[in-house]
Amino acid sequence: YKDVTSISCVGCNSVEKKIYVNLNYTVPCVRLLNATHQIGCQSHLSGNVGVLHVLESEENLDWVLHSGLTPPYLVILESSLFTRSIMMKLKNGSSRVAGVAVVTPNANPSQGTSPHTSCPNENTGVYTENYDPTMARCNVTVWNPLGTGLSYEEFDFPIFAMKEDNDTQVIRQCYMDHNRAGNGSTPQYPLCAMQLYSHMSAVTDTATCMRRNNINFSLSPEMVCDPLSDFNVWASTRPLNNTAKGHKEGESVVLAAARLDSRSFFFDIAPGAESGVSGFVALLAAAHALRNATQEAPPPRNILYAFFHGETFDYIGSSRMVYDMEKNNFAVDLDNIHSVLEVGQVGLHAESRLWLHSDPVSRKNSSVNEEVKKLILRLQSAASGLNVSVEEPGFSQPLPPSSFQRFLRARPIPGVVIEDHRSAFTNSFYESMYDNAEYLNISYPPDLTPDEQLEYVTDTAKALTEVATVVARTLYIQAGGAESRLGSINADPQMVTRILYGFLVRSNNSWFQQLIPSDLVSHLSESRCFVYYLLDSYGRAPALISPPTLLVQYLLANLTGSTVNVSQDDCWNQRVEEQDKESKHMYSYLWVQGAAPPNSTERVGFCMRSAARLSKALSPAFDLHEYTSKDYSTWTESRWKTIKGRIFLVASHELEMLTLGVGVGVLLTSLMLTYIMSSKADILFSSGREPANATY
Amino acid sequence: MTASVFFGCTFIAFGPAIALFLFTIAREPLRVIFLIAGAFFWLVSLLLASLVWFISVQISNKDSAAQQKGLLVFGVVLSVLLQEAFRFAYYKLLKKANEGLLTLSQEETMPISIRQLAYVSGLGFGFMSGAFSVVNILADSVGPGTIGIHGDSQHYFLSSAFMTMAIILLHMFWGVVFFDGCEKQRWWAVAAVVASHLIVSCLTFQNPEYVGSLVPTYVILFLMGVWAFYAAGGSLRNLKLCLTCKDKDFLLANHRPR
């Protein structure tokens, strides 16, 4: 019966509660590996403990790195101080740095900053030394001039992100109470400290960690890393026989491509509003706009919509699709592709101008050049009468980082990439956690319910609708459709604003809930739905599909497909009726939960038939077991056990040693006293003893 | 805090008990058996007390702090009374066992005297009580943090360790005095043991005023130690003899066989 502590706490360990305050929201930076490097952060197996220090300015770093008396320090940074110069200095002084915690603000900073490299995917695009030495390595245009490359540095201490919430207030208060040196005097123990756990199992590079994955000595072998993999989503306006892979005679396909994913410095935060979402939302809206036209007056060529995943990490999705096409493992192959139109970053177009990028090297071939010129003319005619203008950059410039580059590596296909920047990115938060709805100026009037917000058409949505209309009309004419129908092809701003709301503000909305089956509803979290790559335990089937990819698949099915009157059981089995064995080759059937009719609460589900399918987006390097490949992406993500953080007070080393000394002293003294007393026991306890009866 | 605090506090709390065990009990198997049996008796008393307390907490109003505090006081008092009751029960059991052992064994003398049994059983109670008091605190002292982020005193671990050492030694002294009182039918001695146990337990309600709870506890420890010394057959004369190293002469003069 020691302390009358938390009386109400019957079942918990109240001593631990008196010592530690556990942090609720902890987002680490994790370790990724490729063929040659490891990037990201690492902590000790038992966590990194450091005395808290809130960094006030770059000069204050001197305290952490040189003059502070109680290393190692755990530095708390405001987001404005999370710059390359400060992080590099901390990295170099890492014996005195136990970790870094970055406080992410609620509003975006005013200065643009991008943790990505300044030349994204420079080794796996089409511009190598062989292709054109003058254009390799961003010699002509540095695409991401604000890029600091922080995401690709290696740190041997953990770096966590925290929100501005109660926990951060507790941390600041603890620092103010205990660690703040007043007037140049040194702070006294006990000092406030923090411990961060983010131990990563994989080291060195992909080849090492894949080799260690395959060690089978123990009964329960442990995997140390996973290759990055997810699924591409694709659909065609005329259904293609997906079971008969390889070249399809007579099929000429216009490929409309966009990318799905993005990333940031920290794990699992990847809003990617301008870097990814703007592009694929425009393409989804274009696919929806083309649904009626391609049903009623099908153009001669097929249109294949492809949404690639993993493009941030050296074009995982597009390289896999090209590889599948080359190996006759896809519904069409490269000879079937007539041309490519890719929608890149289109969310920020200032002055409503879009820029059409093409590859000057392949255009040296006159036939390719002709086709590209025709495509550009069609784009310009599609944009006439709309509130957006399209132009070429006007000088010889390589393609920006885009999935089209991987297709060019295989064949010189004519194609154009639509972007909102003439040369360098206008996106000042490329692949950063600040590339969110606020950056795209998606704002709603106050006092709207979530359902009203879902339906409200923002200005961003209107602008993106224009882009989608241009893309849709161009695709129609490019596929050989009649110019007379162009006026009727228009993207729906209502659709665009709903999709933007779902992917950038709240994914658990009533519209998304109608489009997905009931077992997927739990994956729609209340917070924003981040489009991101997901890992797959290599070789484990069925592979995990991330919720955003599934959402895009169901969306694409809804926007390009149609409802059919099929029972749920048949729908799940990809058939129209009991005996049907043919439908599954051409169509995919998806059962969705639908909406509840006005007078009841039970949802009425239905079956959606469409040509929307998934194709695996795992880098070919892992199928070929070429883990040091220079041609394909070799990115893997390390596995980890615990990610958590907690704050507490630490006592001085002297006090601890004093406690140990006192303990040893007590032990030795009692040993000595007891020995003396027991050896003299018969003398000491002799009085009152019965004679000859008792023994000692 | 760290391993050094863990070992420091362990040695403080269990140092005297380990020393006593090593030098006086470990070599005699009979004493070890009775020590463990004593520990078990304490454990059963704790089980009963905690059962009653748990049930009473479940049926009480969990939100009222005053009621919870009252329940805790009730729990403490009940546990002290139960421990002493089990000490008495153990005494009765040992008396019966000793008679039985005597009839069974070939020897004429008792293998273990009631005084030794008092000492051993008191130490057994002390070991178990100390273990339950301090082990979970020691487990948390291994981590990197120390108490204080919510404003509690920093000396929690140290004061817990010292309190545990006092409790272990106190149990040993109470055992000696209790059995002696029961042997000689001096019931006021038994009542004094119970009363001092109650006082020491209730002193812990003073925490986190560690000075207020530790100093009186050590005073009571010293007093009980003196009483137990006299009850076990010691006297001031013997102490003087030992300290001035005249014991050998005393032995020779009395021709005591060794």
Describe the structure.
The complex is a heterodimer of chains A (696) and B (258). Chain A is of the alpha/beta class and 696 residues long. Helix content of chain A is 30%, strand content 18%. Chain A is built from 19 helices and 23 strands. In chain A, strand 6, helix 3 (84-92) and strand 7 form a beta-alpha-beta unit. In chain A, helix 6 packs across helix 11 (459-478), helix 6 runs antiparallel to helix 12 and helix 6 (273-296) runs parallel beside helix 14. Chain A is elongated, with a radius of gyration of 31 Å. The model of chain A is unreliable at 1-11, 537-542 and 689-696 (pLDDT under 50). Chain B has 258 residues and is mainly α. Chain B has 9 helices and no strands. In chain B, helix 1 packs antiparallel against helix 4 (114-141), helix 3 runs antiparallel to helix 6 (187-203) and helix 5 runs parallel beside helix 7. The mean pLDDT of chain B is 88. The interface between A and B is large, with 57 and 72 residues.
Q: Which secondary structure elements does this structure contain, and how are they paired or packed?
A:
The complex is a heterodimer of chains A (696) and B (258).
Chain A: H1 14-19, E1 21-22, E2 27-28, E3 32-33, E4 38-39, E5 48-54, H2 61-67, E6 73-78, H3 84-92, E7 97-104, E8 159-163, H4 166-179, E9 191-200, H5 206-213, E10 225-227, E11 229-236, E12 253-259, H6 273-296, E13 302-308, H7 316-326, E14 337-343, E15 353-357, H8 366-383, E16 389-391, H9 404-410, E17 415-419, H10 450-455, H11 459-478, H12 493-504, H13 510-515, H14 547-560, E18 562-564, H15 568-572, H16 583-586, E19 588-592, E20 606-610, E21 613-618, H17 620-623, E22 636-638, E23 640-650, H18 653-679, H19 681-684
Parallel strand pairs in A: 5-6, 6-7, 7-8, 12-13, 12-14, 14-17, 15-16
Antiparallel strand pairs in A: 1-23, 2-8, 3-4, 3-22, 5-9, 9-23, 10-22, 11-13, 11-21, 15-17, 18-20, 19-20
Helix pairs in contact in A: 6-11, 6-12, 6-14, 8-11, 11-12
Chain B: H1 3-25, H2 29-58, H3 65-104, H4 114-141, H5 156-183, H6 187-203, H7 210-231, H8 236-243, H9 247-254
Helix pairs in contact in B: 1-4, 1-5, 2-3, 2-4, 3-4, 3-6, 4-5, 5-6, 5-7
